Amino acid sequence: MRISLFLCLVLFVFSCSKTPKSSSIVKNEEKVKALISKMSLEEKLGQLNLRGTSSRVKGELPEELKQAVREGKIGAFLNVMNKDYVKELQRIATEESPNKIPLIFSRDVIHGFKTIFPIPIGLAASWDPETARQSARISAIESSSYGVRWTFAPMLDIARDSRWGRVAESPGEDPYLASELAKAYITGYQGDSLNNPTSIAACAKHFLAYGAAIGGRDYNTANMSESLLRNIYLPPFEAAINSGAQTVMTSFNEINGVPASGNKFILNTILRDELNFNGFVVSDWDSIKEMIFHGYAQDLKHAGELAINASLDMEMTSRSYELYLKDLIEEGRVSLDQINFLVSNILRVKYKLGLFDNPFVPENHDGNLYAKSHLEKAKNAAINSSVLLKNEKILPLNKSNTIAVIGPMSNQPHEQLGTWAFDGDKAHTVTPLKAFEDAGIKINFAKGLDYSRDKSSQGFYNAVKAANASDVVVLFAGEEAILSGEAHSRATINLPGAQEELIKILSETGKPIVLVIMAGRPITITNIIDEVDAVLMAWHPGTMGGPALHDMLFGDAEPGGRLPITWPKISGQLPLYYNHKTTGRPPSKEKYVQMDSIKIGAWQSSLGNQSHYLDVGYTPHFPFGYGLGYTTFEYSNLKISNTVLESNQLVKVSVDIENTGERKGKALVQLYIQDVVGSITRPVKELKAFKSLSLKKGETQNVSFEISTEDLKFVNNDMKSVIEPGEFNVFVGPNSAEGLETSFEYK
Ligand code: BGC
């Protein structure tokens, strides 16, 4: 029975996707035009309206909503998570509304729907687009079975400050890595063909520079040069749009004085004119209305006017369009042509999704929620995402050892799912404690602390007892899910509560300690790193975090992650990122002045000092790209094919990687370049390529990369994309701070 249903679905999918692409695009455009010509103004305005409902609403579907749909006053919904509601609202729209235009249902499906994958910063740590793609594909398969055909993901905001709570949702600090992930996410969500009922439209968010919030305080101001905006913050969005992202969400912040939701420059000039985006733009939650609080709009009507003229197609939750657009048109402040343009953008996406022909979830589409294959991929994603930061020959552990399982994150089914995991059911979560028990590991369990912010030392006694009775302590520490994510910025990003104290007390037992961190951001561990023998960063690893951690800790798998974001020693160093500028006084080991070395009563002088902190220096705790495995690698024999690169040519760079350790392992080889002199100063390093290889013990492999002139491009102060002649340094290594170096000249 199940097999034949599956076959029906496959046949249905096939019949949806067999129309050749170009002819279907033409047909869609004709259909959009024809439909627009039949629609009343009210109905057009309805298409611009995204109505929110609470996913927790129970009982009868409110009559007010049904009536609004019947009258064509709503074009889309978010958060309707009751399948019957979805069906009924869609039925009303497609049978009773004036032109029977289908609704589109949306949801924040961010790192999984039911099967929860690691949080996005974790997926970014995999440096593996395929892992990201699979997470998005499975999210789409599962969520589309609830009628969701549009997700508010991926978030592509470059994040250089880990105090910002939304670091958890970000692709990290690097535009190249983020762009590679962007492509993968779009392909995963949208599938091979948008009109497949398991495809959901993606939403590249938040446009633009949301991650540049001052001090990491959410919603805060982004002030930056246009070249910085274009060189660092824009590329992942460009990659997403080139990969076919159907929608874009505006950000909450202002950019150089103009809130994103009313920003003609970013929405009209950059997005539509330069990037040729022809999907639709949605505001963020109330972000149109919030232009009043920004001090940019006088009132809600003015806010609507600013947004609509910036070509913001669909308004999420606030109601400026619904209440005032008609008046604005009558007053000549908004043109009908503009309305038609925006409505067309929305209808186009609805046609592409096949909603006009198949508005309902196919009967046989159950989403395979929590299918074994989904869980297996979620487990692999957690393995690929985990970053081993320290290992003093303790990992992998011996399965015959007795393990003290301690810590507030050791058995927290909800917390390990992380932020934005609304639909994941914690009953399906496998915690580390459960996974260790299932695997038959000998365990002494004592939480030590009840939750990550717990300040009570009451549980310490039992924790120490458990440690003393065991061979090794595995301590699961970190942050609860609610301590990162939207509006959850922190000024200090250490282990909250009494976790540091717990670690210190446990270290007095003399037992080896493996610290596993589950958190939504890098956590400063300077105070306790010397007390532990190993540190494994698992981020919030999702539903299958436990089995993944079991396999990594006991050596059935190797942690595969590398840092997608620089890890600071203390939060006072933030913002901190590897691709910074060199400055006129670059810091160095030789010139570093440590605070305690300054004489008492010293004469005030800046001479000799460089761009560094007197107390913590100038280096991070762990650099971007860093991560250990269970073996070691040696890089040698760096070769460059030519030392001069001319237009439209390539430079080939190759290197030998030898596995010098005791077991097979994965090397993630990273290539960076530095444009030594530019018409505007250039970063000290920029990631341009990476490759992952698996090497057996003792094996050597040669890896090669090609650098093309495309890789040398940047946007100058005239906003032109240029390649400037001159010297380029090339670095190939295991992270952004180590590696071999060569150079070439571009003529
Ligand atoms: C967030 C968006 C999200 C939206 C809808 C907002 O608060 O900033 O990222 O998609 O809510 O839930």
Layout of helices and strands:
Blueprint: H1 2-17, H2 21-38, H3 41-47, E1 49-52, H4 63-70, E2 76-78, H5 83-96, E3 104-107, H6 120-125, H7 129-144, E4 148-151, H8 175-190, E5 203-207, H9 226-233, H10 235-242, E6 247-250, E7 254-255, E8 258-259, H11 264-274, E9 280-282, H12 291-294, H13 300-309, E10 315-316, H14 320-330, H15 336-352, H16 372-385, E11 387-391, E12 402-406, H17 432-438, E13 442-446, H18 460-468, E14 472-478, H19 499-507, E15 513-518, E16 534-537, H20 545-553, E17 633-640, E18 644-645, E19 650-659, E20 665-675, E21 686-695, E22 700-708, E23 714-715, E24 721-722, E25 726-735, E26 738-746
Parallel strand pairs: 1-2, 1-10, 2-3, 3-4, 5-6, 6-9, 12-13, 12-14, 14-15, 15-16, 18-26
Antiparallel strand pairs: 7-8, 11-16, 17-19, 19-22, 20-21, 20-25, 23-24, 25-26
The structure holds beta-D-glucopyranose.
Residues 108, 152, 205, 284-285, 486 line the site of beta-D-glucopyranose.
Q: What keyword list fits this structure?
A:
single chain, 747 residues, alpha/beta, Rossmann fold, Immunoglobulin-like, six-stranded mixed beta sheet, five-stranded parallel beta sheet, 26 strands, 29% helix, 18% strand, disordered N terminus, binds beta-D-glucopyranose
